[in-house]
Design brief:
three-stranded antiparallel β-sheet, binds acetyl coenzyme *A, 18 helices, 430 residues, mainly alpha
Length: 430
């Protein structure tokens, strides 16, 4: 079979270059441009990396046109329906669904790493009482490189695996502690008799004054949300983790950087922004006004929870969460006018030419906040909830990168500043 290639002709020099086409197991073909600069002297310009692949990966596949998301080949719908978060974590980290013994062993390992060093709680205590939990999360995870210095060799697979498990295990502990710091509650230590989502709910909401019983509906809903957020190939925060990881930095530093990237409202911060937006709209009668604002190019307002770089049909996670929203509210015996408002907003936007032409659909963040709210989780904790789930993806992608040959991530630029000019002494400046 002839090798597929693209032939590029430079109109100024007449030189040609064959660019090999690299095909993955699925997805659009990709042109390998690594010879472009050495052979023809050009770089490529792709702001926001809209058409650039930075790595090869076996972990997650997305088809944005068809609304497909698969972890290690398994459709997200099947995993959401049949699996559990820690099983999905094992799958993402190690490539296969675990056997019964592997599953039990992995769950035990994660459970026994949930406790944090007491000085971590002291560190959290140093934050201002109303610090955003994402600031605490990112700072505390970075600090863990100082707690686990004996196992920081990124070239040692055992050290890497231990760091991966530690971060998956401790992220809920730190997130819950950040919330308790704000509330002024004493720390709640993890309980090894509870499973992953139950333990998080216990650490969030239990108080010493009374016994806390985990609501199984809440635990199941959280487990589902963690599965849906677990990985999403090379999104902004994961690419940040890989970029930092490409320098050989320790895994805690990489994930702390990923947390910081997730915080932005164009990424994971959107779940918090959606709830704030729905509260601001307040009533179905004002939906039209906000849709108009979102379409106005002179207004920075965007419909939060709408649009996605890759999904141009629908976000399969949003579909699952939308249904879960109704189920969870019904199971908890709650109603929420914000859900009606969100559905109305979705309906109006989906019929509007502006959104139709730009293929803007609800994304994973549009409905998740309504579930979190129903579980009693405050708005400022929404993005930390996303971070708990996504930690698995971050560490899986970091492990994959660390185990394969890679170069330091170092994009180029188109320089548009001054040409050379002479220094002007202070007394001669106008
Ligand atoms: N509301 C109104 N208009 C929008 C929206 C929106 N939510 N999203 C995109 N658009 C418009 C843009 O103004 C642009 O219009 P134009 O072509 O007339 O200039 C067009 O749609 C394309 O938008 P881009 O910003 O170029 O799309 P990009 O792929 O760079 O951005 C993003 C994707 C960041 C998700 C964007 O849709 C957005 O800001 N959405 C709101 C924030 C959000 O929900 N983020 C969560 C994303 S999912 C996640 O990270 C977990």
């Amino acid at each position: 079979m002839t090798e597929r290639k693209l032939t590029l002709t430079d109109s100024s020099s007449g030189k040609t270059l064959d660019l090999p086409v690299v095909a993955g197991s699925e997805g659009d073909p990709t042109i390998d441009i690594t010879r472009l600069n050495p052979e023809l002297g050009y770089f490529t310009y792709d702001p926001g990396y809209g058409t650039t692949a930075n790595c090869k990966s076996d972990i997650t596949f997305i088809d944005g046109a068809q609304g497909i998301l698969r972890y290690r080949g398994y459709p997200i719908e099947q995993l959401a329906e049949q699996s559990s978060f820690l099983e999905v974590a094992y799958l993402l980290l190690y490539g296969e669904l675990p056997s019964a013994a592997e599953k039990t062993g992995f769950e035990r390992d994660i459970t026994y790493h949930t406790m944090v060093h007491e000085q971590v709680n002291t560190f959290i205590g140093g934050f201002h009482y109303d610090a955003h939990p994402m600031a605490i999360l990112s700072g505390v995870i970075a600090s863990m490189a100082g707690f686990y210095q004996a196992n920081l060799d990124v070239n040692n697979p055992e050290h890497r695996n231990l760091a991966a498990k530690r971060m998956i295990a401790k992220m809920p502990t730190v997130a819950a502690a950040a919330y308790r710091h704000y509330m002024g509650w004493p720390s709640a230590h993890p309980r090894n008799s509870l499973n992953y989502p139950e333990n998080f709910l216990h650490m969030m909401f239990s108080v010493p004054a009374e016994a806390y019983e985990v609501n199984p509906v809440a635990a199941k809903a959280l487990d589902l949300l963690f599965i849906l957020h677990a990985d999403h190939e090379q999104n902004a925060s994961t690419s940040t983790v890989r970029l930092v990881g490409s320098t050989g930095a320790n895994p805690y530093a990489c994930v702390a950087a990923g947390i910081a990237a997730l915080w932005g409202p164009a990424h994971g911060g959107a779940n918090e922004a959606v709830l704030n937006m729905l509260n601001e709209i307040g009533d179905v009668s004002r939906v039209g006004e906000y849709v108009k604002k979102a379409k106005d190019k002179n207004d920075p307002f965007r419909l939060m929870g709408f649009g996605h770089r890759v999904y141009k049909n629908f976000d399969p996670r949003a579909r699952i969460i939308r249904k879960a929203c109704h189920d969870v509210l019904a199971d908890l015996g709650q109603t929420d006018p914000l859900l009606d408002l969100a559905m109305e907003l979705e309906q109006i936007a989906l019929k509007d030419d502006y959104f139709v032409e730009r293929k803007l659909y609800p994304n994973v963040d549009f409905y998740s906040g309504i579930i979190y709210k129903a579980l009693g989780i405050p708005t400022s904790m929404f993005t930390p909830m996303f971070a708990i789930g996504r930690t698995v993806g971050w560490v899986a992608q970091w492990l994959e990168q660390a185990a394969t040959a890679h170069r330091i991530g170092r994009p180029r630029q188109i320089y548009t500043g001054y040409g050379e000019r002479d220094y002007v002494p202070l007394n001669e400046r106008g």
